[in-house]
Amino acid sequence: MIGSDKVSTRLRTDRYERQLSGQFQKSDNMVLAIDLLNPTPQAEARKHKLKTLVPAPRSFFMDVKCPGCFTITTVFSHAQTVVICAGCSTVLCQPTGGKARLTEGCSFRRK
Hints:
Largest sheet: 3 strands, antiparallel
Order of helices and strands: HHEEEEEE
Shape: rod-shaped
Strand content: 15-25%
Number of helices: 2
Distance between the termini: 68 Å
Oligomer: single chain
Radius of gyration: 29 Å
Structural class: alpha+beta
């Protein structure tokens, strides 16, 4: 074991001396096929919300306008319960597995 320890130490010092003397060429560095610092918008859209360059949620709040009485209700984009209008008791959106589905005729704007 002592002999192998001397060999590994010598290899490390030899490599360090070659680095200092400039024997390693700059062409030894490999170039990545993609730019990790400036990803394309398409690549960012495919990634998970926490694995993007700047982690951010994909959910949002929105103002939904009732088609019957024109009252505005604030609704979460991933609502897990049925949202009913306070004025006329019509259903504004229904939950799905992910985002809530707006009923036909309801207009919305993102907050």
